């Protein structure tokens, strides 16, 4: 026997452990049932709008991130090409320095 049956069942009208009168329910009786119906169309429409706004926001953020990555990659490649040109010029200058300096030193 459950607590609810002890408190609300058996002899109706007599006070239970809490001091309230028992209703006289028997085991298996249905005391009450509640059914709620909430129209969901409004909530579903709002959820769709929020989802579309979030997708749009994240799509725009992704586009900005890709654009920045492409720009940075291009800048770094240009910088790398400039460094290669400077490196080649430095090597060329070193070659001339090696060839010219000994001949200049011998004339002094």
Explain what this protein looks like in three dimensions.
Helix content is 68%, strand content 0%. It has helices spanning 3-8, 41-107. The radius of gyration is 44 Å and the shape is rod-shaped. The mean pLDDT is 80.
Main attributes?
68% helix; 108 residues; 2 helices
Describe the structure concisely for a colleague.
This protein has helices at residues 3-8, 41-107.
Give the arrangement of secondary structure elements.
Layout: H1 3-8, H2 41-107
Radius of gyration: 44 Å
Number of strands: 0
Number of helices: 2
| Cα distance spanning the termini | 121 Å
Strand content: under 5%
Structural class by SSE content: mainly alpha
Please outline the major beta sheet.
none
Instruction: Tell me the helix content.
Output: 55-70%
